[in-house]
Amino acid sequence: MSEETKKAPEAETPGPAGAQTGSEETAAEQSASPSAGADTAGAPEAAGDAKDEPKKKDGWFNKKNREAEALKAKLDAAEKSAAQAKDQLLRVAAEYDNYRKRTTREADQKFNDGVSYAVNQIIPILDTLEMAANAPCADENYKKGVTMTLEKAAKAFQTLRVEEIEVLGKPFDPNLMNAVQQVPVQEGQESGTVVTVYQKGYKLGDKIVRHATVVVAE
């Protein structure tokens, strides 16, 4: 009996060891529980980041849209400014072209007026020379000199673009002629036509330098 009694306590000795094992498991659970708590606490933060990410994307797109709208506004303003500049240049070019044409017409008009004035001073001299050329003369050299002078005058008029108005045998035109007399119609003549030219008429382009002085058949 004494031996069994001695062995009995030895058999019970594992009890405290088992208790120690249980405490170790409890400690392990306790040590594991904070990490679990930490994971649980981190889960809301991750959820918050997931919610903020769409907001960041929306903000980025809104910023890009605003930048694109600003660039489009600048482009529209630049195109409008370019169109205004082009329109202004076209207006200036048109005004310059009109000015050039107007000054050219004015210069031509002044030149023609000057030529007309000079020709009007010379025409009476030519009228006298023509009368001398048509008058009977025994001196052929004198008559030849007068004729050569008239030919040179005709060439000078041609250079100045001064033309003689052809009226003999033409219908009377008050815009080109002055009628000083009417005579009965002769055989072979038509009423209203020029039958005699007292003074030649001249024109410079469309400008009448001197009207022709004529006689018209009735």
UniProtKB/TrEMBL annotation:
Protein name per UniProt: Protein GrpE
Keyword Chaperone: yes
GO molecular function: adenyl-nucleotide exchange factor activity; protein homodimerization activity; protein-folding chaperone binding; unfolded protein binding
Highest classification ranks of the organism: Bacteria, Bacillati, Bacillota, Clostridia, Eubacteriales
Protein family membership: Belongs to the GrpE family.
Function of the molecule: Participates actively in the response to hyperosmotic and heat shock by preventing the aggregation of stress-denatured proteins, in association with DnaK and GrpE. It is the nucleotide exchange factor for DnaK and may function as a thermosensor. Unfolded proteins bind initially to DnaJ; upon interaction with the DnaJ-bound protein, DnaK hydrolyzes its bound ATP, resulting in the formation of a stable complex. GrpE releases ADP from DnaK; ATP binding to DnaK triggers the release of the substrate protein, thus completing the reaction cycle.
Compositionally biased tracts (Low complexity): 36-47
Keyword Mitochondrion set for record: no
Subunit structure: Homodimer.
